[in-house]
Amino acid sequence: MKRDRLDDATFEVAHALADAARVATLKHFRTPLSVDSKTSDFDPVTIADREAEAAMRAILAQRRPDDGILGEEGDAITGTSGLTWVLDPIDGTRGFISGTPTWGVLIALRDAGGPFLGIIDQPYIAERFVGGSGFARWTRGDQSRDLSVSAVTDLEQATILTTFPEVGTTAQGDAFRRVASRCRLTRYGMDCYAYALLAAGHVDLVIEAGLQPYDIAAPIAVVQGAGGIVTDWQGGPAHDGGTCIAAATPALHARALDLLNG
């Protein structure tokens, strides 16, 4: 499959994954949950994470058996097609267990060059952001519209989002604050929804660190499809995780990148 010629069947599978994860997560959202931690530093996981990923993997096993799978909660599967589905059943589990509707389901399809189809789905408010090579679209029920990033070019007029105030290591946090101190407004705790807001033109900049590939693959496709720019903090590809800067315009990206490395 060529990345610029996605077929209807692939879109149908992607939406089927999002639909299944929506059902699996919503039945547990804002209910009493047992929360486990994957690390000693409290990296939470719940039955909702596990059930949602299992539901998506079951669909792929039936409908796309030749494709690979990279998911947060299960073992990686190496396919034979050259394509890999990248799944994060709940991006923002801390938000999920706190009852805030800023978490989301992330689904991406990637090849050796990176992600070329992505979905950010927020089940509770029923918003779905879909993007890929040359397109991005928002839907909620029977409502839909094309997505387009803002035209902001000056940091002083920009709204910047990130998830954790610490933003990775001490040095990375200092670098983030060099950028944020120049921006008009800084907001925290958005998880993947930050990238959805960027793609929709509501905010202008998202900067994060400490990412895994499944955290960023879908946001890359959605933001780029809406006309934005996504790289790591060195200006290279971000789809393997680590650091990420997503910007609405080239000028905004260049200025923020200079400050991050200044």
TrEMBL record:
SUPFAM superfamilies: Carbohydrate phosphatase
GO biological process: L-histidine biosynthetic process; phosphatidylinositol phosphate biosynthetic process
EC supergroup of this enzyme: hydrolase
PROSITE patterns assigned to the protein according to its UniProt record, in alphabetical order: IMP_1, IMP_2
Amino-acid positions noted as binding Mg(2+) 1 in the UniProt annotation, renumbered to this chain: E72, D88, D91, D215
InterPro entries (UniProt xref): His_9_proposed (IPR011809), Inositol_monoP_metal-BS (IPR020583), Inositol_monoP_superfamily (IPR051090), Inositol_monophosphatase-like (IPR000760), Inositol_monophosphatase_CS (IPR020550)
An annotated Gene Ontology molecular function: metal ion binding
Cofactor list: Mg(2+)
UniProt keywords, alphabetically: Amino-acid biosynthesis, Histidine biosynthesis, Hydrolase, Magnesium, Metal-binding
Residue ranges the record marks as coiled coil: none
Residues annotated as binding Mg(2+) 2: I90
Recorded metabolic or biological pathway in which this protein acts: Amino-acid biosynthesis; L-histidine biosynthesis; L-histidine from 5-phospho-alpha-D-ribose 1-diphosphate: step 8/9
EC number: 3.1.3.15
Pfam family, one: Inositol_P
Catalytic reactions of this protein: L-histidinol phosphate + H2O = L-histidinol + phosphate
Family from the record: Belongs to the inositol monophosphatase superfamily.
Name of the molecule in the record: Histidinol-phosphatase
Annotated organism of origin: Jannaschia donghaensis
Lineage: Bacteria, Pseudomonadati, Pseudomonadota, Alphaproteobacteria, Rhodobacterales
